């Protein structure tokens, strides 16, 4: 049976145009095109343009047998650069991908390149991680030294090492797989034909793009296998390959002034690989961040984005050194260097080798300070140390002990108090989430440097009017014990009173890892959803969020999330502590079960009150708990460090 004809599912209205210049090597070209057919799941609209540079093997015959590609035939041999430029002129997509024919792109390669432009609006060129067929790293972005020689960073290393696995600005990316917006490519006049037939055109394009005010990024989540040397060989003394040496001289002459700021091949590649980084911050937390599962992780993730917006290169390491699949990759995708086992044996070993480069070390939670403060002080001599309390744990434990009449927990709370006060004393600044906690700490030790920086959250706004909503919700991760207590208390003591007045009302309990005692609350009117990936559905369906906490501390992420959607809340005074919410203005606040139930039923039926609380809650959110509010606070804090 003859082989099934190759058909690539392309489109006439592409987002990206994949341009493949070819000269002979038909087997490799066919393998590349076959891979494009395999990995396109119709989630990305693209076209494929193959520019045949007068091949003398069976390339032309092979190409004409493939469905879905556009073929541009050169009338004479033009070389790589002019073939790429011809392909670009024929392209219809918004983004151009220049892809060597001796490559095999991995799944989602082009999606990751494209996504980078959405994450980095000032991106001008994005290149992929290049791998050898045996799995070793070929290039994780390129370094150009001051003599115009290039270095494939990470060559022959393990491609999964942390230093090769996060988005970063680079000098250039090899043209085997790069993406460029068509408008920018045309604005710059395409690849410079000064370098024809080939070599140095990719690094020159990167330098031109940077000169035009854009950035050049290496995106490691876009992976391509590259059969290096297949197209032009490896002998730099003959054939097209000889232009690698010739064009290095041309490149140096053109960019000599810029290259004066670059180091020599003997300099430290750790610094040269990201020469535009001037400030570095290390963030240490207990475990990998899971922002879709708990408010604490979401807060730190948003802090990290703020640090980046303040021009800090961010390195994140969980105390357990765990690589946590998509969660780790989500940070790497946006440019966070994530450290993990087995490449990092311990945080102490990393600090010993790299601690001198950090300007700030950000430690989240008191036990993290206790465990690492001595190493930080020893190996990070220039770094300012910031301790993020998350909340005052000992206050929460004291309150829980009182509710449960638990002497053992009361004793533990006193031990936690010593731990937290010691942590605050040993750092340069302690961050708390509310003036209430600031006052508590300063009452214990007036010499402490305590700043209030609350949670940072996106403001989504209300999308659905009152009349199209119904029911109530509770949101919270159930690894946090106060949430377990709150929903059990609410369903037993308050919800029956609500049902007496509103028989059709339903209660949605939303949050990851609900224990058996919470699962057992489920009924026709009480829906325990467990983890929900997209919360917007519930926040735009329900009429309110209830926050019946009986103990806890700090600012409550569940309230901030609710306010960010314009969803009014009914909460206890403890739940609203430190947030300066006003009863009847931007929230309903009450502690007694009967009054709580009355507040819920009143709000559920009063459109005027609902609209008032929704609008005022959004205003409170924007002024106090938005990303911009937290950014201003961190800018002031870090600016103070720089001025010392």
Note down, in words, how this protein is organized.
- There is one protein chain.
- The protein is of the alpha/beta class.
- It folds into 3 domains: 16-272, Alpha-Beta Complex (Spore Coat Polysaccharide Biosynthesis Protein SpsA, Chain A), CATH 3.90.550; 279-452, Glycogen Phosphorylase B (Rossmann fold, 3-Layer(aba) Sandwich), CATH 3.40.50.2000; 466-625, Glycogen Phosphorylase B (Rossmann fold), CATH 3.40.50.2000.
- The protein is 39% helix and 18% strand.
- The protein is built from 22 helices and 25 strands.
- Strands 1, 2, 3, 4, 5, 6, 7, 10, 11 and 12 form a 10-stranded mixed beta sheet that branches. The protein has a 7-stranded parallel beta sheet with strand order 15-14-13-16-17-18-19, with helices on both faces.
- The termini are far apart.
Q: Structurally, how many domains make up the residues? A: 3
Mean of all residue-level pLDDT scores: 93
CATH topology of the largest domain: Spore Coat Polysaccharide Biosynthesis Protein SpsA, Chain A
| Distance between the first and last residues' Cα | 78 Å
- Going by helix content, strand content and strand pairing, the class is alpha/beta
Text of the CATH class of the largest domain: Alpha Beta
Integer-rounded radius of gyration = 29 Å
- CATH-derived architecture of the largest domain: Alpha-Beta Complex
Helix content: 25-40%
Strand count: 25
Task: Detail the poorly predicted runs.
Answer: 235-239
- Total count of helical runs of at least 4 residues: 22
Name the CATH superfamily classification of the largest domain. Answer: Spore Coat Polysaccharide Biosynthesis Protein SpsA, Chain A
- Biggest β-sheet description: 10 strands, mixed
> What general form does the structure show?
globular
Strand content: 15-25%
């Amino acid at each position: 049976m003859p082989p099934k004809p190759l058909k690539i599912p392309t489109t006439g209205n592409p987002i990206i145009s994949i341009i493949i210049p070819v000269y002979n090597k038909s087997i490799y070209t066919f393998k590349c095109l076959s891979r494009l057919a395999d990995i396109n799941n119709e989630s990305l609209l693209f076209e494929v343009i193959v520019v045949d540079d007068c091949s003398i093997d069976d390339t032309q015959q092979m190409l004409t047998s493939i469905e879905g590609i556009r073929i541009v035939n050169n009338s004479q041999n033009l070389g790589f650069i002019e073939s790429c430029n011809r392909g670009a002129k024929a392209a219809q997509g918004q983004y151009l991908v220049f892809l060597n024919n001796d490559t095999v792109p991995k799944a989602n390669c082009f999606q990751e390149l494209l996504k980078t432009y959405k994450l980095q609006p000032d991106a001008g060129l994005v290149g992929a991680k290049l791998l050898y067929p045996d799995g070793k790293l070929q290039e994780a972005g390129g370094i150009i030294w001051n003599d115009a020689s290039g270095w494939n960073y990470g060559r022959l290393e393990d491609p999964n090492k942390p230093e090769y696995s996060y988005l970063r600005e680079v000098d250039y990316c090899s043209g085997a797989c790069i993406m460029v917006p068509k408008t920018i490519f045309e604005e710059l006049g395409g690849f410079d034909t000064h370098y024809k037939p080939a070599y140095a055109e990719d690094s020159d394009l990167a330098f031109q793009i940077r000169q035009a005010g854009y950035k050049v990024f290496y995106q490691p989540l876009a992976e391509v296998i590259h059969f290096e040397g297949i197209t032009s060989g490896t002998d730099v003394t003959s054939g097209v390959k000889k232009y690698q040496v010739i064009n290095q001289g041309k490149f140096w002459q053109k960019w000599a002034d810029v290259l004066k700021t670059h180091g020599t091949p003997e300099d430290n590649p750790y610094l040269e690989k990201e020469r535009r980084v001037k400030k570095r911050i290390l963030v240490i937390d207990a475990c990998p961040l899971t922002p879709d599962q708990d408010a604490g992780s979401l807060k730190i993730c948003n802090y990290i984005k703020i640090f980046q917006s303040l021009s800090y290169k961010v390195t994140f390491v969980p105390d357990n050194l765990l690589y946590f699949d998509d969660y780790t990759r989500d940070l790497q995708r946006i440019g966070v260097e994530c450290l993990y086992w087995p490449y990092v044996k311990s945080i102490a070993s990393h600090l010993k080798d790299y601690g001198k480069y950090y300007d700030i070390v950000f430690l989240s939670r008191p036990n993290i300070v206790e465990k690492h403060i001595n190493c930080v002080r020893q190996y990070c001599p220039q770094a300012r140390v910031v301790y993020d309390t998350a909340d005052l744990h000992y206050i929460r434990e004291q309150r829980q002990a009182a509710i449960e009449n638990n002497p053992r927990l009361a004793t533990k709370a006193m031990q936690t108090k010593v731990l937290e006060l010691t942590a605050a004393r040993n750092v340069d600044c302690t961050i708390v989430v509310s003036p209430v906690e600031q006052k508590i700490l300063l009452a214990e030790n007036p010499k402490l440097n305590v700043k209030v920086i609350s949670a940072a959250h996106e403001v989504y706004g209300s999308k659905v009017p009152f009349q199209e909503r119904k029911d109530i919700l509770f949101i919270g991760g159930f690894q946090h014990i106060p949430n377990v207590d709150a929903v059990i208390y609410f369903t037993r003591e308050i919800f029956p009173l609500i049902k007496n007045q509103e028989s059709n009302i339903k209660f949605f309990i939303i949050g990851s890892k609900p224990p058996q005692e919470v699962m057992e609350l489920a009924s026709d009117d009480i829906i325990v959803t467990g983890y929900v990936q997209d919360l917007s559905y519930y926040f735009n369906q329900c009429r309110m969020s209830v926050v019946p906490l009986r103990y806890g501390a700090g600012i409550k992420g569940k309230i901030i999330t609710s306010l960010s959607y314009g969803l009014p809340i009914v909460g206890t005074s403890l739940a609203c502590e430190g947030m300066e919410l006003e009863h009847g203005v931007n929230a309903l606040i009450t502690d007694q079960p009967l009054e709580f139930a009355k507040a819920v039923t009143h709000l559920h039926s009063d459109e005027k009150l609902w609209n008032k609380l929704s609008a005022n809650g959004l205003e409170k959110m924007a002024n106090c708990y938005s990303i911009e509010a937290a950014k201003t606070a961190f800018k002031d804090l870090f600016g103070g460090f720089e001025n010392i």
